[in-house]
Each structure stands twice: as structure tokens, then as C-alpha cells.
Specification:
Length: 315
């Protein structure tokens, strides 16, 4: 079943339901209508166009435990990294196009109106996930590579305030641009809203970073960026852990990872350790295999022992 809702400046005015052989099309009365298309959401489908909008998309996040409202500042599928497990189809190297912040704000307002005062949850979300969890800057590339990132945080803050909504904004980042003052100011603002950052750290060895993330490995730079980030907003580390060419990460890899995190642990909220929930869309996809859950748990316990950090595992 597909559900489409016509929303006007945040006001849901009409509902169109479309099922095979059963189409009901309602009336709409304005030329400024946006069409929002919804399908029944699944945890294994994080399509950025699930609502037919340019910047805003809902997903069911197994990590967040409910519906996450995604903000995609990279609609051109361009990223400054090239991770082997990346789920973005047609990923290219580069930065985002200019972001239309007015449109982003309209989309977010319209979507939240439909969620809070419409029947989006009933129509599109399985019963067990009918909770609004967060607003996450997480798109088809690195969100902080957009010069409009701080402005986007400000717009999200305004929409949340307009709805009197106490929803934490999250930033999912590879952390590579934390040295930029505009990025820091956006994260500081996000932190002041009670938001948090999920900072990508997949491997800590220079060679592995090059292989997994497709960028020159610089563990010291990552360490500095992580420390800076933790000083601006509550920061979790997020780590994708899997076997490459049939080989799980080596003992040296585990050691290097724990060594990098240990001195920063007191500043961090914890670690989200996750496996390969959805397939990689990159050329290296066939080289990757998920690790058995006991192996993930073993690594999680090792991190906890070595660093004292809390580890949440999503195999
Ligand atoms: S940083 Fe994120 S968007 Fe960029 S390549 Fe890696 S997984 Fe994909």
C-alpha cells in the first residue's frame, strides 16, 4: 500500500490512499501544495525519498528504536568519504549542492504536522515502532560538508520550538570536518538543544581506515576531532564491525581501536557497535560479511573492559 498526503505549509489538507485496484484521490485547494508520499516503513529500508521530499525522510531506526526523521543535506549522493559498506546507491566523491533552508523548514514543519496531528503512524509504521525518536542529520553524504549545516540546525531548532517538541536532534557524522569553525558552531548549537552526535570510528589503524573508509588514515586527527566534538555536544562513537574478504578485524585492529578510545572515554557517552544490517551499495559489497553475534558481543565486552565505555550492540 502507498499513502500520499498533500501538505500545505505544514497543514495537512487532504489524504490520498492508493492500493492496487483501489484508488481514492481527494481534492487539494492550493497551488503551494507539496506532495508527500509514504510507504509502509521497514527497518531494512532507509530510502531518502520515502516521503517524496527533497530533504526530509522518515525511517524506522533500529538504533534509535522508533521513527527517526532524517534530514538529508546531501541529495546529490556525494560524500567526502567512500566507505566500503556505504548504503548510498550511486555514491560519488564530492560535496553537497546549496541547501534551500526555507524549503527544508517547510518540509520539516509539514511532515511533523502530519505525524503529530495526522495518522502517519497508524498508516505507515508497525505498531511496535510507533514512537517519534529523533531528528537526525543523516543523509547521502557527510552532513557537515554543507556550508548550510549550522543554518539547518537553527531551522530545526525553530521548528521544534514552534511545535513545542522536545525531540533530540542528532548528527551522524564521519567527523572529518570538525576542525572547521562553522561545523563546530553547528554542533555546539545542537548540543545546546539537548542533541547528540554519533561520530564514526570504524577502525583506528591508518591502513584500515584507508581500506574501510576510503580516505588517508590519520588516527591522531580522528582523536583530536573526537575530543573537540565531545567538548561541544554529547558524543557517541559509532562503529561498523564486519569481516573483509572473510577475515574478521585482527587482534591488532582491536588493540588499536581500544587504544585510541581509552584516553577519550571519560568524555564520551558510549559506543554504538553495529554490523551489516543493510547491504552495501558499493563495488566492494561482495567482500563484506557480517560477523556472528557472539563475536560482536565479545568485541563489545573487550571495549568495555579496556575503556570503561558503555557499548550498545546492533548485530
Ligand atoms: S561517511 Fe557515510 S555517507 Fe559517506 S561514504 Fe561513509 S557511510 Fe557513506
Amino acid at each position: 500500500m502507498q499513502v500520499a498526503i498533500r501538505a500545505v505549509w505544514g497543514m495537512v489538507t487532504d489524504i490520498e490512499r492508493q492500493t492496487a485496484g483501489d484508488v481514492h484521490v481527494g481534492k487539494t485547494s492550493t497551488s503551494r501544495a507539496q506532495i508527500i508520499q509514504w510507504v509502509m516503513l521497514r527497518t531494512d529500508d532507509h530510502s531518502r525519498d520515502s516521503a517524496g521530499l527533497r530533504y526530509v525522510y522518515p525511517v524506522i531506526s533500529r538504533r534509535a528504536g522508533g521513527v527517526s526523521v532524517g534530514i538529508n543535506l546531501n541529495p546529490n549522493n556525494a560524500c567526502n568519504w567512500a566507505c566500503v559498506y556505504c548504503q548510498v546507491e550511486g555514491l560519488t566523491r564530492g560535496g553537497p549542492p546549496p541547501i534551500d533552508l526555507d524549503l527544508l523548514e517547510q518540509e520539516l514543519s509539514g511532515f511533523l504536522e502530519a505525524v503529530l496531528h495526522g495518522d502517519f503512524m497508524q498508516r505507515c509504521v508497525p505498531l511496535e515502532a510507533q514512537r517519534l525518536m529523533d531528528i537526525a542529520f543523516s543523509g547521502n553524504g557527510e552532513p557537515t560538508s554543507s556550508p548550510e549545516f549550522p543554518g539547518a540546525v537553527a531551522r530545526v531548532a525553530r521548528v521544534l520550538s514552534n511545535f513545542s517538541l522536545n525531540l533530540p536532534p542528532r548528527l551522524i557524522t564521519n567527523g572529518s570536518l570538525l576542525h572547521r569553525s562553522d561545523v563546530q558552531s553547528g554542533i555546539r548549537h545542537l548540543g545546546s538543544l539537548g542533541g547528540e552526535v554519533w561520530f564514526k570510528l570504524d577502525r583506528a589503524g591508518a591502513d584500515e581506515i584507508q581500506e574501510i573508509n576510503g580516505v588517508p588514515g590519520a588516527p591522531e586527527k580522528i582523536s583530536r576531532a573526537l575530543e573537540t566534538c565531545a567538548g561541544l555536544a554529547r558524543t557517541w562513537v559509532q562503529t561498523c564491525w564486519f569481516a573483509l574478504d572473510g577475515d574478521p578485524p585482527s587482534a591488532g585492529s582491536v588493540d588499536a581501536y581500544c587504544l585510541l578510545l581509552r584516553p577519550l572515554a571519560h568524555q564520551l557517552a558510549g559506543v554504538h557497535l553495529y554490523g551489516l544490517a543493510r547491504p552495501s551499495m558499493q563495488a566492494a559489497a561482495s567482500r563484506l560479511t557480517a560477523l556472528p553475534e557472539p563475536d560482536m558481543q565479545l568485541f563489545a565486552r573487550r571495549i568495555e573492559i579496556e575503556t570503561g565505555l558503555k557499548v550498545i550492540v546492533s548485530p
